[in-house]
Amino acid sequence: MLNLFMGLLLDLVLVTIVKAVVRRRRPAHNRMDMFATFSVDRFSFPSGHATRAAMCGRFLLAHLVLAAPLRFLVVLWAALVGLSRVLLGRHNVTDVMFGFWMGYVQYNLIEMLWLSPQTLQGLLGQLA
User: Fold this and answer.
1) How far is CA 32 from CA 27, 89, 126, 128, in A?
2) Is 29 a catalytic residue?
3) Active site annotation includes 49
4) Are 45 and 95 in contact, with CB atoms under 8 Å apart?
5) Where does the sequence pass through the membrane (predicted)?
6) Which residues of 25-47 are buried (b: 16+ CB within 10 A; e: fewer)?
7) What tens digit of pLDDT does each residue of 78-102 get?
8) Residues contacting 29, CB < 8 A, separation 6+
9) Which among 103, 111, 121, 124 is positioned nearest to 3, based on CA atoms?
């Protein structure tokens, strides 16, 4: 789970950097009607929901033994997250598509930096 947590932290940092660099405004039909929430940013590109859905979906598919119907549901869940962002008017289609791609690539990076249980035990042992 620590690897997934590291991936989610990486995602938050990278999405924030890309949004700050690109500074693409949300779609014109986006209504700022979310008064009971804390808005992190005003920018649209990329969709952070899509990056996290793609990365978590790949994590579930790679590390859990799932029957074919459950694998389909994981992919469907990720797709519906992206679709919901467009239908709610929070993102353009390109924001979501790039977000899916970015989440996919982030997972590849996490796989390269993967910490095995033995490595984690060694690190935790040194901290104690």
Assistant:
1) 11, 10, 48, 47
2) no
3) yes
4) yes
5) 60-83
6) ebeeeeeeeeeeeeeeeebbbbb
7) 999 999 888 877 788 888 899 999 9
8) 89
9) 111
Q: Which residue has the tokens 């008064």?
A: 35
Spatial distance between the Cα atoms of 49 and 117, rounded to a whole number of angstroms: 28
Tens digits of residue pLDDT in 41-84: 677 688 888 999 999 999 888 888 778 888 899 999 999 999 98
| Candidate list 49, 52, 58, 90, residue with the active-site label | 49
Instruction: Specify the pTM.
Output: 0.74
Angle, CA 100 vertex, CA 87 and CA 38 arms, to 5°: 60
Structure tokens at 81: 């997250």
